[in-house]
Amino acid sequence: MFQTDITADLFIQASIETLYMVGWSLLIGTLIGGPLGILLVVTRKGGVLENKLLYNILNPIINIIRSLPFIILLIAIIPFTRFVVQTTIGTEAAIVPLIIYIAPYIARLVENSILEVNPGILEAAEAMGATPFQVIWYFLLPEAFGSLILSITTAAIGLLGATAMAGTVGGGGIGSLALTYGYQRFDTFVMVITVIVLIIIVQVIQSLGTYLARRVRRR
């Protein structure tokens, strides 16, 4: 039998902290990464707002940030995190690097989703005299909506893994619980439960995303 000193309240609190971090990071990261992804599409060569200079600035910046492992990014921007939220410990502090980590990732996912849109739709929009804004809002985004939902789902699952790493530097959540009670105290029960909780959360997120994407594509 497993023996542990941890209580159900701690598991519940850790789960709430994890969902809090994922929710806010995903929301703000999407608000930043979404427009960036759209800009990558419309400013590239042949885009409706082709701008070589802007594209050549955004593209490498996004690549550079995406190339950094989250744990390194987390530590590297500690001064910035302290400046923004006045602390480097806790869920609020973890949200700052999570946003910086996920925003360029979402930008790439959004870019890929929009690039999947049939070019014939854009040609038809331009033939009707649609403005660049109308092409983006009424043609590109609606056509890519199902794929965009799956992209955000993928980003949410990626964030979940990142929150676990945030726990190693006092970010709270399930990752912190696993480290403090499971690893440092050699509590096998805690490790098993945290893994199960993470699996359940991933399955719920993926199932919800798949369901919503399927509903959108049937319309």
TrEMBL record:
Transmembrane found in the keyword field: yes
Transmembrane segments: 20-41, 53-77, 148-169, 189-213
UniProt main location, coarse: membrane
Localisation: Cell membrane
Alphabetical GO biological process terms: D-methionine transmembrane transport
Similarity remark: Belongs to the binding-protein-dependent transport system permease family. CysTW subfamily.
Location of the ABC transmembrane type-1 domain: 15-206
Origin: domain of life: Bacteria
High-level lineage: Bacteria, Bacillati, Bacillota, Bacilli, Bacillales
Keyword Transmembrane: yes
Keywords: Cell membrane, Membrane, Transmembrane, Transmembrane helix, Transport
Membrane topology (UniProt): Multi-pass membrane protein
PROSITE patterns to which the protein is assigned, alphabetical: ABC_TM1
One GO cellular component term: plasma membrane
Name of the protein in its database record: ABC transporter permease
